[in-house]
């Protein structure tokens, strides 16, 4: 259940499917979008006032093979909603240029992602993949080109990103497993 807290009061405003939860949110198009995670179908919901929400799309409408949404964000410069999907599907990244009304696949391939960091002309996506031990995708929006950085997690089976941000000249990533915070200046070499 999603709650809005005002003063000392917490008010439920949106209920997820039983066992599911709301994982990420994004502000865009003058609205707030929240993304549901868990058992399919999961949804992306929109609200103008944080009181009334409506479902704009389900993961299965974008890719019938997907299990759920992984992330949602908004590229303000291009006015695009960006979402990542996961677990056994073909469409890994989808975009909407009309505030969630319609969606089109942006990346179909083996690598799946959770976080997306919008950084000017490039988007940085953190791996969440059982195929690769860990890494990043860098999408150059201007030339529509993908590149990939694979990480070697010494002593660990995986190094999967749950969030990524930029602080000054450093990229800061949070790993879900192993639970750690890592930093890098060049996205090639990461340090605990």
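Q: What amino acid sequence fits the structure above?
A:
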């Amino acid at each position: 259940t999603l709650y809005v807290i005002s003063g000392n009061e917490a008010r439920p405003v949106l209920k997820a499917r039983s066992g599911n939860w709301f994982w990420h949110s994004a502000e865009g198009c003058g609205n707030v979008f929240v993304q549901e995670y868990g058992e399919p179908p999961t949804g992306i919901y929109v609200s103008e006032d944080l009181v009334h929400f409506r479902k704009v799309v389900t993961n299965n409408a974008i890719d019938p093979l997907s299990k759920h949404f992984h992330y949602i964000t908004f590229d303000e410069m291009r006015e695009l909603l960006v979402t990542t999907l996961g677990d056994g599907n073909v469409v890994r990244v989808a975009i909407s240029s009309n505030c969630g009304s319609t969606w089109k696949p942006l990346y179909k391939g083996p690598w799946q992602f959770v976080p997306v960091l919008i950084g000017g002309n490039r988007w940085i996506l953190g791996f969440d993949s059982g195929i690769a031990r860990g890494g990043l995708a860098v999408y150059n929006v201007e030339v529509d080109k993908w590149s990939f950085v694979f990480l070697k997690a010494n002593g660990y089976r995986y190094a999967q990103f749950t969030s990524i941000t930029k602080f000054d000249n450093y990229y800061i990533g949070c790993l879900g497993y192993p639970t750690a915070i890592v930093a890098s200046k060049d996205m090639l070499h990461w340090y605990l």
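Q: And what stands out in the fold?
A: DSSP finds one helix and 17 strands in the chain.
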